[in-house]
Structure formats: C-alpha cells, structure tokens
TrEMBL record:
This is Phosphoesterase. GO terms for molecular function: metal ion binding; phosphatase activity. Gene3D superfamilies: 3.60.21.10. It holds the Pfam family Metallophos_2. Belongs to the metallophosphoesterase superfamily. YfcE family. Its EC number is 3.1.4.-. It comes from Carboxydothermus hydrogenoformans (strain ATCC BAA-161 / DSM 6008 / Z-2901). GO terms for cellular component: cytoplasm. Its cofactor is a divalent metal cation.
C-alpha cells in the first residue's frame, strides 16, 4: 500500500495543491497529515477546507492548538525578539482569519492517531506523543528514541512533524519518520517536501519528494494580507526561520 505523509503546511495553499496533485499522479492510496495546517501562511481557511474536502486524517499541531483556542502564544520556539514579533503578528492574523467552522475542525483534531497497515502499527503525532511542541531531532538519538520504544512497545512506525526537517531511520526494528515541512521550509530550498511510504508485509520503503510549486503566489499573498515580509522571504527560500 502506498501512503503519503504531509505536515507543517502552515497556510500554504499553492504548495498543498501541488503536493496533492503529485500524490494523485503517483496513485497514493491514503494521505495523513502531522499537524500545523495553519500559521505564518496567508491561506489558513483554504488549507483547512481542502484537507477536509479530501478527507485527509491527521493530528493537532501546536500552532493549530494556539490559533484555534486563541492562546497567547502558538507554543513555538522563538529565539530572538524579531522572531517573537513575527510570530505574534502571524498568530494575530491567523486567529482573526479563522472561520468558526474551521476553528471547530481544529479543536476536534486528536493529539495522536494509531492505525495498522499490513500488520505494522503506526503512531502519528506532531511534536511527541506527550507534547505538541517537543522537537524530536536526530541529535537526540538514541536516548529519546529508545524512550519512545520503551513507552510504546507495540508501535512499529512513528510518524511526526514540527521540526520542518525531513528524516527517516530504522532503529531496533522501529521506523522513525518526519516528512518535513510542506509549506514553510527551514532551509533555502523552497520546494514543498513530503514523504511517500510503500508498506508491504515484508518491508517499509520511504521516498522523500521535494515538489516545485509557485511560491511567488504565496509570497505575494503574504504581502497583500499584511503579514511580515520575512515570511514571504522564507517561502521563497531566501532565509530560514
């Protein structure tokens, strides 16, 4: 069975459309998202509505939680005063823009999803099963990943987002996958990345797919809607954030 995992879309509708078109072209049978559908990008409602229309299952992200519940912060890890300023403006825009039905959709997203494909038990979450905003990064190997195996001994495949960096590895017979950010890169590659996963009873194969899309449309919409210029530069691949 061919699956697709997408995540950290962050209100980037043009990127999402191109990724879904690629998944359809490749005859993907099922798509899941790892959360953070909104934030920073100019199309929060349109992204949520497309995810709903396509019946794409997924989990709550820290930004989804912050915006849907009108929290004072998005649970994001800002390191400088400038990043805090950009984040505050983005959150204010997103909270103000969300339609009531889309806010309710986000509120109903689960923190985790478990499912079975060809005998393999999957666990899907955003940051970690315990915290929406925990960063599971390769530099935490092996300690933090050993703890996940210890805490969730029945899980074969852990799929998560939040870091915006795609990676995959096999450890102690368990698979760990982050599909990366579809809509807000933390590198200077502006393409929308996602993961295609072929699952059989014998093996699991991961293929990361960086997809070109018209990021200039997203950048122009960011400027038109009064969001910080830095966010337009980020989706254009000029600066990481």
């Amino acid at each position: 069975m061919l699956l697709a995992f997408i995540g950290d879309i962050h209100g980037n509708l043009p990127a999402l459309k191109e990724v879904l078109a690629d998944a359809e072209m490749n005859k993907v049978e099922k798509i899941y998202h790892t959360g953070d559908l909104i934030g920073y990008g100019p199309y929060p409602n349109e992204v949520i509505e497309l995810i709903r229309d396509k019946n794409i299952e997924g989990v709550l992200g820290n930004y989804d939680d912050g915006a849907a519940n009108k929290k004072p912060t998005c649970g994001c890890d800002y390191k400088t005063a400038k990043e805090h300023e950009i984040g505050a403006k983005s959150l204010a825009f997103t909270v103000k823009s969300l339609l009531p039905e889309n806010r309710e959709y986000l509120k109903k997203l689960p923190n985790t999803i478990k499912f079975v494909i060809h005998g393999k038990n999957f666990l899907l979450f955003h940051g970690s099963p315990e915290r929406l905003n925990e960063y599971l990064t390769p530099d935490l190997f092996p300690g933090r990943f050993n703890k996940l195996i210890e805490d969730y001994p029945d899980i074969d495949v852990f799929v998560f987002g939040h870091t915006h960096y795609p990676f995959y590895f096999l450890h102690q017979g368990r698979h760990f996958l982050n599909p990366g950010s579809l809509g807000k890169p933390k590198t200077k590659d502006p393409r929308a990345v996602y993961a295609q996963v072929e699952v059989t009873y014998d093996k699991l194969t991961v293929n990361f797919r960086p997809i070109p899309y018209p990021y200039d449309i997203t950048a122009a919409a960011i400027r038109k809607k009064g969001l910080p210029e830095e966010l337009a530069q980020i989706v254009s691949g000029n600066i990481p954030f």
